[in-house]
Amino acid sequence: MPPTDASPPPAANIAESGSARPFEIRRVRTRFLGLTLDECIQGFFGGNAFVAVIILALITVFLFREGFKFFPLNQDNLRIYRAAGLEYVQHLRGLDESHLALNRYLQDVRLRGLQAMQVEGVPAAEIKARLAPFDAWTNAFGDAIDPVRGLAGEMGDLSVAAKEAYQQNEDYKVARDQFLAAGKTAEAQAIEIKEVDFAANAAVLRGLLPAAREAAAGASAVIEAQLAALPVFPVAELQPRLARFAELGREYLATYPAALAGMEAWKYDQPVSGLEAFQAFIFGRQWTTASFWQDWYGIVPLFTGSLLISLIALVIAVPFGVGAAIYVNQISTPREQRLIKPTIEFISAIPSVVLGFFGIAILGETLRRLSGWEGLSWLPGFPYAERLNALTAGCLLALIAVPTIFTLAEDAINNVPRAFKEASFALGATKLQTTLRIIIPAALSGIISAVLLGLGRVIGETMVVLLCAGNRIAIPDFGLGLSVVTQPVHTMTGIIAQEMGEVVRGSIHYRALFCVGIVLFLIALVINFLAQKIVRRYKVSVG
């Protein structure tokens, strides 16, 4: 019979109608405020990305706005330093400070010799007798600078008094303006401001130049004679360090003519340019705050400290991180992979403050004691006395960097096309040959990127270096070779964390810390840019 109007539709029509209506219903139900579910998800994640970009832009603007205000303040800081005569007197003070550094070098040699003789079991009385000639010579060398030191103190008192009078006047001006703004005219008029006569102060200082020449000549003659009579140190292994001291002493004597020439060329009213203020920060070798003499904001000692610790960390972390990635990806069994990968990645979950506490309580003291073992005396810088130094901080930062390097390097190795390995095996290469000559070269760009990101991870670390690096603001003595790793240092991140909570908002010190933050920001930006560029090049080459 032919189908009537009441007959059911064909099976194809039923399938079509049954598949279309539920889809339309689901689409209607997933709408929210006129948007589909896909549009809502897209808007949510897109909005998060937009908010992140805005926050990053605000942080960048705030960082640069606060930091760039440092340079005009530093320019004025250097202008007063010159006008008050501190720059003039600093030439003599510099001779004294360099001489003091040489004395510290001698004390370090003596300490190392004392420790070496104690390890050998030499009696205390005999140790004292052996060191007596060296101690007498050291005392004579230390007293040689007394004429220069005394004159520098006398001239420094005049300069500091002029600087303090200027600063007091500036405080009075601020107080007067505050009274005027509050409508207290009588109080404002009661404040008496006496301008400082920098010209008269400069004339007095210049009148002492002949005495400075005489004091410098006498001190240099005594020091030269002392260097010629350099004694033999009772510990033969430390004699090369005394030879190095003699070289440093001759270099020190060569600075005397330059110091006197600087005093002669000094002009109290010579203007300070903005470039000088910028160079004083970028190339400055001192970071000195809250000083009665002069505050200096030079980033070089902080940058070199960060660089030294980062290099130590990479020297330790790269072999372990990359080696573990190669082993896990190419050699280990599945059971070993399930054990090794989570263990390494778990390290990144340990709080850095916990690692810093571990460095203070255990690692630093352990390394210091190990450095005294006779079997390790051949290592540069061993034994050493400071338990908190660049080596301790570098070892802990290496532990922090290993998970980053391992994860990224393992991903890079894993992304090498399988055809490379199969072709190598087909040509008769062994597994080791394939790994070393095919897999690693193919993944080298990704491995380098992993190392760079590991560098960015350690150079931005704060708590570990603040707790374990020793926090000595000084440029490490790279002339000592590998033993430089045993010296205490300070870092850019450490100085921000240590001092930001103590500074006055808006002060020159406050702005200087923001400038350090800008340098850190630029370093991290360059490192990430290089890493991303290498990753893109790696992906293109693989594709």
Short note summarizing the structure:
The chain is an all-alpha fold and 543 residues long.
Describe the structure in your own words.
The chain is an all-alpha fold and 543 residues long. The chain has three domains: 11-68, no CATH class; 86-267, no CATH class; 302-489, MetI-like (MetI-like fold). Helix content is 74%, strand content 1%. The chain is built from 22 helices and two strands. Strands 1-2 form a two-stranded antiparallel ribbon. Strand 1 and strand 2 (296-297) form a beta hairpin. Helix 17 runs antiparallel to helix 18 (431-442). The longest helix has 36 residues, at 146-181. It is flat and about 90 Å long.
- Strands of the largest sheet, in order across it? 1-2
**Strand content range:** under 5%
In terms of structural class, how would the helical and strand content be classed?
mainly alpha
Roughly what is the average pLDDT, rounded to an integer? 87
Please mark out the parts with pLDDT under 50 across 5 or more consecutive residues, or reply none. 1-9, 11-20, 22-30
Could you say what the CATH topology of the largest domain is called?
MetI-like fold
Q: Please give the CATH class of the largest domain.
A: Mainly Alpha
Give Rg in angstroms. Answer: 34 Å
From the N-terminal CA to the C-terminal CA, the straight-line distance is 65 Å
Q: Which percent bin holds the helix content?
A: over 70%
User: Assembly type of the shown chains?
Assistant: single chain
Overall body shape: flat
CATH architecture of the largest domain: Orthogonal Bundle
Largest sheet: 2 strands, antiparallel
Helix and strand succession?
HHHHHHHHHHHHEEHHHHHHHHHH
